[in-house]
């Protein structure tokens, strides 16, 4: 029997069939409407997420800027404080910048972790901050110092450490270590404590070499700059005496790069 014959025999079936179709159609419309609503809700949620992400990234950007500004003003303050101490001495701002650059370079080549290299870079210029407590007539005396005067000069290490101690800042903590130890010698004949070898903090051992190298190769009111050759001979002789032999070896291994750093005053 064909479908037409079925409908002819049962006319009610047509209206039932139509009704059923209407229900399906309205269900379909409902499903479509609710899908539409869901999609627009999803789009709105998506837009909101994007807006949040945008706000978050600009907040992070602003935070980074203020963090950077804070760090810069902090470092600037330190630099000015150090300059105040160095004004009493014959040293210059260039000396501090070179020390910082030599120390960063040597620390990197020694394989010191990156974060500590950065800390040493900022802390090393504070090595002589204790000179602020040394009388000018001793600090700037042109002739040879008496034993008593030299004893006073030595205290710039402990004065510096006292100025820097108990800080929460990692930079100042390392600066304190450097201030107290940069005149110690590998052979134990340095001051203030006569520490020997690896008992001297590595930061102090690095600064010791950088400081002497810079002092020897720089002109001062009472002396001319030593040639690189003479300076290198002195450093070679002091390998394992004044200086940590490993740092001296690294120094000579990279002498060309160190001389490049010497040429660049301000980085
Ligand atoms: Fe010093
Ligand atoms: Fe110095």
Can you describe what's shown?
This protein is 70% helix and 0% strand. It has helices at residues 3-9, 11-87, 93-109, 114-123, 136-139, 147-154, 156-164, 170-181, 202-217, 228-237, 245-253, 255-263. The chain has 2 domains: 1-87; 91-263, Hypothetical protein af1432. The termini are far apart. It has 12 helices and no strands. The protein is an all-alpha fold and 267 residues long. One fe (ii) ion binds next to loops.
Query: What overall geometry do the principal axes of the alpha carbons give?
Result: rod-shaped
Q: Quote the distance from N terminus to C terminus.
A: 98 Å
User: How many β-strand runs?
Assistant: 0
Number of helices: 12
Properties at a glance:
267 residues, Hypothetical protein af1432, binds fe (ii) ion, mainly alpha
């Amino acid at each position: 029997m064909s479908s037409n014959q079925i409908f002819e025999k049962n006319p009610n079936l047509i209206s039932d069939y139509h009704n059923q179709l209407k229900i399906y159609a309205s269900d379909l419309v409902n499903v479509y409407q609710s899908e539409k609503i869901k999609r627009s809700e999803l789009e709105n949620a998506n837009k909101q997420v994007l807006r949040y992400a945008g706000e978050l990234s600009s907040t992070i950007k602003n935070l980074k800027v203020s963090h950077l500004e804070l760090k810069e003003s902090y470092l600037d303050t330190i630099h000015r404080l150090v300059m105040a101490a160095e004004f009493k001495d014959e040293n210059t701002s260039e000396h501090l910048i070179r020390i910082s650059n030599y120390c960063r370079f040597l620390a990197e080549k020694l394989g010191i972790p990156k974060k500590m290299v950065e800390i040493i870079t900022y802390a090393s210029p504070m090595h002589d901050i204790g000179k602020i407590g040394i009388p000018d007539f001793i600090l700037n005396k042109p002739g040879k110092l008496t034993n008593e005067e030299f004893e006073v000069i030595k205290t710039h290490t402990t004065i510096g450490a006292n100025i820097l101690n108990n800080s929460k800042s990692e930079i100042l903590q390392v600066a304190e270590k450097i201030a107290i130890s940069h005149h110690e010698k590998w052979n134990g004949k340095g001051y203030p404590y006569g520490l020997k070898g690896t008992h001297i903090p590595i930061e102090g051992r690095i600064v010791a070499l950088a400081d002497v190298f810079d002092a020897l190769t720089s002109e001062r009111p009472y002396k001319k700059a030593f040639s690189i050759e003479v300076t290198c001979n002195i450093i070679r002789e002091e390998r394992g005496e004044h200086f940590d032999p490993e740092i001296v070896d690294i120094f000579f291994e990279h002498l060309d790069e160190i001389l490049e750093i010497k040429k660049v005053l301000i980085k």
